[in-house]
Amino acid sequence: MCAAGRRWGRRQRALLWAVLLAAWEAAWGQLRYSVPEEMPKGSFVGDVAKDLGTQLPAIHDRGLRIVSEGRTQYFALQEKTGHLVTAERIDREQLCENVQQCVLRCELIVEGEMKVYGMVVELIDINDNAPSFRKTVIELRMSEMTAPGARFHLPDAHDPDSGRNSLQSYELSGDEHFSLAVQAGPGGDQRPELVLAKALDREEAAFHELVLRASDGGDPALTGTARIRVTVLDANDNAPVFSQSEYTVRVPEDVPVGFVLVTVTATDADEGLNGHVKYSFKKITEKASQIFQMDAETGAITLNRSLNFEDGDSYELEVQAHDGGALFDTAKVVVAVTDVNDNIPEISVRSALSEISEDAPSGTTVALLHLRDRDSGANGEVRCSLDGDVPFRLEKSFDDYYSVVTARELDREQVSEYNVTVRAADGGSPALQSSAVLSLRVLDVNDNAPVFAQESYSARVAENNAAGALVLTVLARDADWGQNARVRYRLWEGRVRGAALSSYVSVQAETGALYALRSFDYEEVRELELWVLAEDGGSPALSSNVSVRLLIVDENDNAPQVLYPPPPRPAGAGSLSGALWSGVELAPRSSEPGALAAGSLTRWLVLAVAAVSCLFLGFLLLLLALRLRRWRREQLLAAASSGALRGVPVSHFVGIDGVRAFLQSYSHEVSLTADSRKSQLRFSGASCCDTLPVSVPARPPPDEPTPLLGDEDLA
C-alpha cells in the first residue's frame, strides 16, 4: 500500500508538471504539451480551447478534431471543455524504445477554417519497469588454474525506462572467491564483469553459486536479479580469439529472409574440447533477437525476419565465442540497414469540402491534404500535383500539409462537378506514385437571366375568335439550376384603346402560353403590341422580356350598307314636306336603258361634272396656245440673229445677261413671210440715234428643259 501510494503521488506530481509545461508556440503554429505515461484513459493533457483563444461554443461550430499518424489515436478532444485528453493508456517504452525523449506528434484540424496546427506531446517516463536480465541463470566454466584477477564478462541487465528510472547499479553476493567490477561501455552504459578474487580449487569446491542484482534510480528503486553458477574445470590454457574486434556490414532493407549477413570467426589454440569454439549472442535487444539468428557452430548471422529501414536503420550486437573450457572472447557486430524505395507516398485527406458555391472567391480552400513517404533521403521526398486543367492549385500549408484552393472563379453552367486527382510522386528511381480523388460539386448561384428562344414573337389571330383561345406560346430558358432556373411569365402591363392590356390577353405563368381573353374585332383593333416578362426564382430574381405582336385578321362578318338613297321612313311616321325621300324615283317615259333616274340632285351632279370638265379642257387649250406662241417667237428671233444682223459692228452691241442690244438706233424694214427662213430685216445706216430700239432675248441652252409657260406668258 505504501509503494502504491508513493507511485500515485509521483504520477500526480508528473501530471502537475505536465500542466505547467503546456505552452503555445505561436511562431511555429504548434501546441506543445507533456503528460506522464500510463495515465488512464481520459486523463487531462492540455487546454486546447484556451491556448487557441477559442470560445467553447465555437469548438463545435469550427469543427475541431485531432489526427494522428498511424492507426492508433492516442489523444482526443472533448467538445464540452475544449481539453485534450488521452484516448487510451500510453506505454512510453512500447512507443519509444531506446529513445531518451519520447515525443508524439499529431495535428489539430480546424474544419471550418481549413487550417491545421501541429501538436507535440512529450511522454514523461515513470518508473514502471524493473531492470531484468535476458537469462535468469548464467552458466560459467572456469579452470582451476585461472589466476586471481581474471575478469569474465557478465550479461547486462535491461531497463526500458529512461533517465533516473533506468538502470543505475549492479551488486554481487554469494561467495568470497569473486567480486564485481563495472566498466563503462562506448555508449556510456554499464557493463558488469566478474572478477576472480581468490584462486579456485576444484577439489575444494566444484561449483560456486552467486547472485547478481541490478537496480534502477527510481523512488523506490526497482531491482532485478540473475543467478550465476560457476563450474570449476581442469586446466585450459588458451581462450578463443576473434579475427576482428568489430564487424560492420551494410545491407539493403529488401534482403530476403535467411540471407547470411556476416560470419564471425574465432580461433582457439587448445586441442580437443578446450579448442572447440561455439558462438552465441552475448548482448542483444529483444527486438534484435527476433530479427537476427546466429549459428553456434559456424558463427554465421542470418536474417530471421525482414528488415525495415523505417523501423530501424542500425543494430549493434555483441557476440561471444567460448571454448569447451569456458574461456571466451567477445566482439561487436554493427548491422547498418540502407533504405530502398519500397514505400509509395501516402496521401491522407484530413479535411475536404463536398460542395462549393460557384461564386466562391479565388483562393478558397476546398481540401487539406497530408503527404508522407516513409522512405528516407531522395526516396522520401514527395512532390505533388493536380491532374488536368482544373481551376484549382496546391499550396504548402504546414510541414507536410498541402491545401487545395480555387485558382479562379468557378462557373457551374460550364462544369457542375469536379473530380480532382491529386498525384504524389517520390524522388526514387524509378519513382513511386500514388493518387487520391477529391469529388466536389459546384452549387448554383443565380447569375443567369432567362433567355427567350426568339428575339420577338408574332402571331395572326382571326377576328371573332373564341374567348380563352390559345394565341401562341413563348419559351425562355435559364442556364442556372434548381429554383434559380425556374422561369415564370407575366405580362408587362399596358393599355389598349383606354382599356388594360390584361383585359385582352393573359399569359400562363408556368408554361408561357398566351391566351385571348375576349373576341377580337378587326374593325376596332387591328393589332396588339405587348411585352412578356420572364423571371427566374432566384433571390434576387433576374428577368428578361420579349416583344409580342398580334395581328388581327379580318373576316367577312359585315353586310354592305346603303348610304344613298337613305332608307325609307317607317310606316305611320307622318309626312314631312320634301324633307324625306319617298323611296320612289320618277323617270321620263322616253328614258333610254341605262340612263340615270332624273332626280333634281342627279341633274345638278351631272351639270357640275360637265362644268368642271369644260374648264379643264379650256385650260389645256389655252396652255397649248401659249406654248405655240412662245415657240414661234423663239424661231423668229433665232433667224434674225443668225442672218439679218451680220453687218452690224460688234461695238454697236452691249451684252446684258446674254442679250445683245444696239448702241445706236437704225431705221429698218422688216418683211415677214410664212416661212421663217425667208424673213428679212433691213437696216438703214443713215437713220440712227442713241436709242436701244430692239432687244433680242437669249435662246435657252439646248440641254435645259423648256418650261411649259414662259415668264412673259405668265405675265
TrEMBL record:
PROSITE patterns reported in the protein's UniProt record: CADHERIN_1, CADHERIN_2
Cleaved signal peptide residues: 1-29
Alphabetical keyword list: Calcium, Cell adhesion, Glycoprotein, Membrane, Repeat, Signal, Transmembrane, Transmembrane helix
CDD domains in the record: Cadherin_repeat (cd11304)
Record localization: Membrane
InterPro entries: Cadherin-like_dom, Cadherin-like_sf, Cadherin_C, Cadherin_CS, Cadherin_N, Protocadherin/Cadherin-CA
Membrane-spanning parts: 604-626
Annotated GO MF terms: calcium ion binding
Region ranges (Disordered): 694-715
GO process annotations (BP): homophilic cell adhesion via plasma membrane adhesion molecules
Protein name as catalogued: PCDG5 protein
